[in-house]
Amino acid sequence: MVKKPSPDAARRSEKSRRAIYAAALALVGEVGYPKTTVEGIAARAGVGKQTIYRWWSSKADVLLEAFLDLSAQAAREAGQEPYVIPDTGDLAADLKAVLRITVDQLLDPRFEVPSRALAAEGVVNEPLGREFVAKLLEPQLQLYVDRLRAAQDAGDVRAGVDPRIALELFVSPLAQRWLQRTGPISYDYTDTLVEYALHGIAPPATPKRTKTGR
After folding, report:
1. Which residues are within 8 A (CB) of 13 and not within 5 positions of it... i.e. 6 or more apart?
2. Lowest-confidence range among 71-75, 101-105, 141-145, 210-214?
3. pLDDT by residue (tens digit) across 89-115?
4. Spatial separation of the C-alpha atoms in residues 133 and 170, rounded to whole Å
5. C-alpha distances out from residue 191 to 21, 34, 58, 103, 185, Å
6. For residues 40 and 24, what is the distance between their CA atoms, to the nearest angstrom?
7. Which of 79, 89, 163, 179 could make an S-S bridge to 145, C-beta 3.0–4.6 Å?
8. How far is residue 108 from each of residues 113, 115, 175, 189, measured CA to CA in Å?
């Protein structure tokens, strides 16, 4: 009698985890955050509710991890390391590269639909808004801070510039345009944001004309 191989528990767990991520993101996009429940996620994923509670304490924790995983996937698909802003020595090129990945995410229905649902809920649900800002947004913004500080050390950014404020020059306009649908978002748009942020919008300085004797 041939003995059947035992099931691969790790593979089964990973398959369940992936199903739960997909179910949570799909559900919050369809019915909104308030109507999304652990029971609903479990049913959609085809797992028991106890499976979810074994790994996460709440639906917010499930969604947070699902978004982090989705962001990592998007970075890998773009050929970038997840949760890293490259440092090639060319600040403009590095910022443009990572913002292009962000554009891809924001235009991807897998990310866009649940993101809009959570953004809307975060406006009226202050505890949830704070949690997602602290756990999801701030770690990503810190990557920009670190890259800008490295550029300061290299002499590519003025010493007195506050990186935390500077990053808002290109991150905030993109977020506002996407959230409020005030215009299209594209690579050209984010490339322009970086150019304006790094080089300003004033015309190049010209030498002052000196008075000559008449």
Report:
1. none
2. 210-214
3. 999 999 999 999 899 889 988 888 888
4. 18
5. 32, 37, 38, 11, 11
6. 8
7. 163
8. 8, 10, 15, 17
pLDDT digits (tens, 9 = 90+) for 122-150: 888 898 889 888 888 898 899 999 999 99
Non-local (6+) Cβ contacts of 137 within 8 A are none
pLDDT value of residue 193: 97
Chain centroid offset of residue 116 CA = 13
> What residues contact residue 56 under an 8 Å CB cut-off, 6+ apart?
62, 65
DSSP string, 144-155: HHHHHHHHHHTT
pTM of the model: 0.78
- Tell whether the torsion through CA atoms of 138, 152, 170 and 74 is positive or negative: negative
pLDDT confidence tier of residue 212, bands split at 50, 70 and 90 = low
| H-only helix segments in the chain | 9-31, 38-45, 49-55, 59-77, 91-107, 109-124, 126-132, 138-153, 163-166, 168-180, 187-199
Tokens of 197: 């942020």
Contact by Cβ (8 Å): 132, 123? no
